[in-house]
Amino acid sequence: MDQKVCFVVMGFGEKTDYELGKTFDLDATFEAIIKPAVEEAGLKCVRADEILHSGIIDTEMYMMLYQADLVIADITTGNVNAVYELGVRHALKPSSTIIMKEQDGRFSFDLDHTSTFQYEHLGKDIGSREAKRACGALKDLILAAIDDQQKVDSPVYTYLPALKYPMLSEQEFQEKVEELEEEGDRLHMLLESGKTAMNNNDFSSAIVFYKAAAEMAQHEPTILQKLVLATYKSELPTKEAALMNALDIAKQLNPYQSNDPETCGLTGAIHKRLWQIHHNVDDIELAIKQYGRGFEIRRDYYNGENYATCLDMLADHSDDSNEIIYNRMRAHKVRLTIVESLEKVVADDTGLRERSDRKWILASLSNCYLAAGNNEKAEVYELSFLAEELADWEQKTFVEGQIVAKEAFEKLQALKSW
Predict the structure, then answer these.
(1) Ordered structural domains, the chain, with CATH
(2) pLDDT tens, residue by residue, 108-130
């Protein structure tokens, strides 16, 4: 075929490295570094996740791993599929394979003898400067790998130099590449359409797009998470029914055993809202459990703020003075921990500017300081938050958070009169 093909094997969506306590948006890695580097090098870029929708993936996957002129394997977070596919490629081809990972991630097996391209991930984001640097460096590696097909990079053929690799015809390969590209474009379109609908508060449309995407990607967890959020936000046909429907979808993620902060946060939100409807103590306790788990895993400030709020809610419901004091103080300590954690993020001014969640870091700091009674610090971060480009719903969410924070401080102060 005229244009050479690069096959990219990697995880999909946001994945958490629990050892590091960091979440990586692997889609951002693909969009900001890998795809532009491949295309600037003149190759066609096909990603492994684009064939996940197929009922029979073995033939397609092995065909791509063998026939592709170049394979890039991102093994960040030790993704087992990517690592397995990398091993298959090393067994099939002696050259033209590039391994890459986030710089802080550790190998779960010995690859010290194998050259690995590294890049830096800022939490869920990749900074613009790092994206530019990594993209250029990866492009150079790609061009070098394509130009020198005799250079062996597979450890299999390095240690077994007499091994003869298999030979297959390229029959149907070009057709398959084009088919996968079309399917990948469709999946991307569905996800982008769902995102746009969410931003426009058109939750019903978002549900349609995310359902179709989830079916195409064999119920990939990150897409199911988006579907859960859209479902409970829709409040259709009723608020309670929407919450129960969202919970049914979330159960596919095994939420009560999950260590994924996003899954924990979503199910925590569902149970918090069910508590607000029925005041069933089981719901508030489940909300606390889920938010608490999401917070403890990696000090996730979204989960942490809601964890503290639910602890205050439980205290409001109690008649036991000891339990009230206990939960109020737990909530207070969580907020102080969030402040300590986020102040370290803010101290890195360059890193903060490049984070897509910058505004919410500022909002959380303002609200946590407000709940702790430090109005001066709260105002500093409030002004920084309001200086950001904000949608109406973002300002509304912040105001609601301020109300909760003020009430939390008042309740904390009331303990002193006991």
Answers:
(1) 5-168 (3.40.50.450), 182-417 (1.25.40.10)
(2) 555 555 678 999 987 677 888 89
